[in-house]
Amino acid sequence: GAAKLVVVIAIFLLTFYVISQVFEIKMDANLGHIFARSALDAAARSTKPPRYKCGISKACPEKHFAFKMASGAANVVGPKICVEDNVLMSGVKNNVGRGINVALVNGKTGEPLDTKFFDMWGGDVAPFIEFLKSIQDGTIVLMGTYDDGATKLNEEARKLIAELGSTSITNLGFRDNWVFCGGKGIKTKSPFEQHIKNNKDTNKYEGWPEVVEMEGCIPQKQD
User: Fold this and answer.
1) Which residues are within 8 A (CB) of 78 and not within 5 positions of it... i.e. 6 or more apart?
2) Do 196 and 202 touch, CB atoms closer than 8 A?
3) Is the pLDDT of residue 57 over 80?
4) By the 8 A CB rule, do 103 and 81 touch?
5) What's the rounded Cα separation, in Å, for the pair 23 and 10?
6) Edge-to-edge strand order for the sheet containing 177-183?
7) Environment class of residue 129 by beta-carbon count within 10 Å: exposed (0-12), middle (13-18) or buried (19+)?
8) 4 phi and psi, to 5 degrees?
9) What is the reported pLDDT for 88?
10) How far apart (Å, rounded) are the C-alpha atoms in residues 163 and 93?
11) Digit-coded pLDDT (tens) for 12-48
């Protein structure tokens, strides 16, 4: 009887040892898989390119505001204006329309002030002129066309936009695509402007040129 008891105990201990070894091997394998996956995830995160405000290609220096904008696509997709990672105007926000779309931003703080669009095909240019005259000094002004932004523009309106720093506004024609960023009280011509003429031989869409996009860093207004 004593011999049988010893054999039973020995078998039990051997079985326990084998089970514990198998469990330890599986545990090591699982931990190894977890650590390997964590290392791969960390490597993926380290190689993923950083995202900058408004999705621009590089970070802006201090005392500058990041912006990105695009004109409308034909008469289907509206323009988009983003400043400091804040989408001010877009089709998703349902605050864009045919004509010239305008966003105003505080030149010192980067805070949005107002957004409006003015129909330059079937509308009246007078409200647009009054709006342009009401813009305060130090205000950043961003504009983008959608469908047609030029038919109702007169010399007075073009002159007021030129005073914001635009050089292309004098040549803006029927269904041209145009984006512009300037400022009230600017002393020089703005470097932020893109313009594509409506040309049936080069248009991307039937009757409309391709979308124009622009990004950059707007200097903060200093006292």
Assistant:
1) 72, 89, 90, 91, 96, 97, 101, 146
2) no
3) yes
4) yes
5) 20
6) 112-118, 99-106, 139-146, 177-183, 192-196
7) middle
8) -60, -40
9) 98
10) 29
11) 666 655 555 555 555 555 545 555 566 556 555 556 7
